[in-house]
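hey m, so remember when u said the tokens were messed up on ur end? i reran from scratch. heres the input so u can diff it against urs
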Amino acid sequence: MAMDPRTALDRLISAFEGHLAIASQGENADPEELARVEDILSDAFFMYDDVLFTRFDAELPFDIVDEDEDAEVDFVDLDDEDLDDEDVEFIDVDD
């Protein structure tokens, strides 16, 4: 039997509260406990997302990317300092 959307939302809110309780300890937070509540939060988010989609065909307006998926994406980070005027070729489209 599928989870009720309200139950999934309540679990997500509870997971956020648990994460806040540990994260608010700052540098004093136990890294293992922080990792544990992060996993709980991630699971609760994906469960809520799945329940919404399954029950209502609704999607959340954002996605969480898995670290493994993120590692596969290559980003080029160019600052203004990385570019010289000589590196940029301008083409006049009116000609």
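this time it looks ok to me. The mean pLDDT is 84. if urs says something different then somethings off w ur setup not the seq
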